[in-house]
């Protein structure tokens, strides 16, 4: 048996790759495609002269980017393997009056094969799903390969977290399980590991300041944020309901979620009048239910629209409402990668990143072969006799690593006698296992820091105050009063937009205000504790470029 690995769309998404099993299929090479993302052309990567054929397509999650090219890559009678929850979420996006546009949705649904326990794909190749967190329905897949001489184990957990995701347990395997090879996502050093806490904090902050709040996301993310907001309502005392609408409301019920702070509305949407946080799809609100709700808020300066994105947070379309994009990335960190590899102790480690820029250097130094793959070349991981070392590893080091690995091939087959392996299943949502910092969110939800009271001046200090200094203070105060009387006052709400960006939302803006205009602000000392005049240029990119939004929408054109 020979095993090969290839990333198939590193420049257009990076979520798709192929495993080639040579010597398992008689007189040929059996190939499994993991995720059919943007830019994937399965016919172009299969070599017919070598007898390569597609055994099936495995969906590791129900994010749209994992199946956006499914219709152009699935052939008749080719199974699509997934967990039950992933199949449910994808099916919801492909059916209904506002379904995702695909050429053969009925055939795709007919060819779904739910993997629930050990499943024999063909003689000598079996697979079992494992919990990996990340998002609702996401799963890893444990493969047992038997070529008649020995068996080997390969774990694919390209999307994983140690934290749970909306009740779906993080990466979990029996401690006594021996693994030969693992395929994982490398940590992405370009984003904050606390993005879920930051996003939830911003949403809860908007609840306390905005008249209406709309959150847009793809299906798994929308389910995830709905579950977290429902639990946060208890933890921080947020009285508003979370209302998943359309297919998110339907999926909430289908997957068995319940929470007294969540009121699903599968068949409609409430009026956006501040009665709760409404969650809708798609993530980019230029179509479907998200667009209809966004259109109702676009001219309301007191409303807030928040888009959750897996990519960099880009500006949203120009609007009078508060509209912003926030990153929602529940992915491995360097510490979690080190912890997982220490626990699994594999011989072969394949790391890939969703971006073409890999981490600098090997994320962990350990006694394993570590491959960092950022291109679309085919790499041989097992050559028929031993696990292959990366080319940059010298022969002495490779020999030392092989000697330290135990003999795994005399043990009983996992599928017949191995330890019980948990299935990806939804459990009760517990905020402490979800990776969200409740204290940080609570600090943003209507609990500003208490002002520090100034010490009263002592009699001696009062007596020492000169008449001139007292007059200076009076003149300063009179100047402030005159400035306020000479200008039309406006009431504004301070909005923390994250990072070092702080915005002022004018409650009743003068028609004379124009985008890009320079204005002089006078902060009321009665509410801010300080008087200052600041002249500031508005940045040219405050109004978002709609073209950027439409580019992102290419991958997530789910209408609802």
Please identify, by name, the CATH architecture of the largest domain: 4-Layer Sandwich
| Poorly predicted tracts of residues | 356-363, 448-465, 525-560
Nearest-angstrom radius of gyration?
28 Å
Helix/strand-derived category reads: alpha/beta
Sheet with most strands: 7 strands, mixed
Any idea of the CATH class of the largest domain? Alpha Beta
List the helices and strands and how they pair.
Elements: E1 2-7, E2 17-22, E3 29-34, H1 42-45, E4 52-58, E5 80-82, H2 84-94, H3 105-110, E6 112-114, E7 119-122, E8 125-131, E9 139-146, E10 151-157, E11 181-185, H4 195-209, E12 212-216, H5 219-236, E13 241-244, H6 247-254, E14 276-280, H7 288-297, E15 303-309, E16 322-327, H8 334-344, E17 348-352, E18 369-373, E19 378-382, H9 395-404, H10 414-417, H11 438-444, H12 459-464, H13 467-486, E20 492-496, E21 502-506, E22 519-522, H14 525-528, E23 533-536, H15 546-553
Parallel strand pairs: 3-4, 4-5, 5-6, 10-11, 11-17, 12-14, 12-15, 13-14, 15-16, 17-18
Antiparallel strand pairs: 1-2, 1-19, 2-3, 7-8, 8-9, 9-10, 20-21, 22-23
List its salient traits.
about 550 residues, alpha/beta, Metallo-beta-lactamase, Chain A, Rossmann fold, 2 domains, seven-stranded mixed beta sheet, 15 helices, elongated, disordered C terminus
């Amino acid at each position: 048996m020979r095993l090969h690995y290839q990333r198939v769309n590193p420049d257009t998404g990076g979520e798709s790759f192929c495993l080639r099993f040579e010597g398992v299929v008689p007189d040929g090479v059996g190939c499994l495609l993991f995720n059919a993302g943007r830019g994937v052309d399965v016919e172009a990567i299969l070599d017919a002269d070598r007898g390569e054929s597609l055994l099936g397509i495995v969906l590791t999650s129900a994010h749209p980017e994992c199946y956006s090219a499914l219709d152009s890559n699935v052939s008749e009678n080719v199974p699509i393997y997934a967990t039950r929850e992933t199949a449910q979420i994808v099916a919801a996006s492909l059916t209904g009056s506002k379904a995702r546009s695909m050429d053969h949705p009925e055939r795709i649904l007919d060819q779904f094969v739910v993997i629930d326990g050990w499943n024999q794909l063909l003689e000598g190749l079996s697979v079992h799903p494992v919990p990996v967190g990340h998002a609702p329905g996401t799963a890893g897949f444990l493969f047992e390969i038997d070529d008649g001489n020995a068996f080997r184990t390969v774990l694919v957990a390209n999307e994983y977290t140690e934290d749970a995701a909306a009740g779906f347990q993080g990466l979990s395997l029996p401690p006594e399980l021996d693994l030969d090879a693992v395929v994982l996502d490398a940590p992405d050093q370009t984003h904050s590991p606390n993005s879920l806490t930051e996003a939830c904090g911003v949403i809860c902050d908007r609840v306390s300041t905005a008249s209406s709040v709309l959150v847009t996301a793809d299906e798994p993310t929308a389910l995830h944020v709905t579950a977290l907001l429902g639990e946060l309502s208890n933890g921080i005392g947020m009285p508003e309901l979370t209302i998943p609408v359309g297919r998110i409301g339907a999926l909430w019920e289908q997957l068995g979620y319940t929470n007294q702070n969540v009121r699903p509305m599968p068949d409609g949407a409430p009026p956006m009048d501040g009665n709760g946080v409404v969650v809708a799809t798609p993530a980019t609100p230029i179509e479907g239910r998200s667009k209809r709700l966004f259109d109702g808020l676009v001219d309301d300066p007191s409303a807030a629209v928040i888009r959750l994105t897996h990519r960099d947070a880009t500006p949203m379309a120009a609007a009078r409402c508060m509209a912003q994009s926030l990153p929602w990335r529940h992915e491995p960190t360097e510490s979690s990668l080190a912890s997982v590899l220490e626990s699994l102790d594999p011989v072969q480690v394949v790391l890939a990143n969703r971006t073409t820029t890999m981490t600098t250097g090997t994320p962990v130094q350990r006694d394993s072969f570590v491959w960092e793959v950022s291109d679309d070349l085919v790499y041989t991981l097992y050559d028929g006799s031993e696990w292959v070392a990366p080319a940059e590893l010298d022969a002495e080091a490779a020999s030392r690593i092989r000697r330290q690995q135990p003999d795994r091939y005399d043990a009983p087959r996992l599928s017949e006698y191995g330890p019980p392996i948990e299935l990806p299943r939804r459990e009760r949502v517990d905020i402490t296992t979800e990776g969200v910092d409740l204290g940080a969110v609570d600090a943003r939800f209507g609990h500003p820091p208490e002002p520090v009271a100034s010490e009263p001046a002592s009699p001696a200090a009062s007596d020492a105050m000169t008449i001139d200094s007292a007059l200076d203070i009076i003149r300063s105060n009179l100047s402030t009063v005159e400035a306020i009387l000479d200008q039309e006052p406006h009431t504004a709400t301070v909005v923390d937009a994250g990072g070092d960006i702080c915005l002022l939302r004018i409650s009743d803006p003068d028609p004379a205000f124009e985008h890009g205009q320079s204005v002089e602000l006078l902060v009321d000392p009665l509410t801010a504790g300080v008087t200052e005049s600041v002249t500031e240029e508005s940045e040219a990119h405050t109004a978002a470029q709609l073209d950027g939004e439409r580019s992102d929408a290419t991958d997530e054109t789910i209408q609802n």
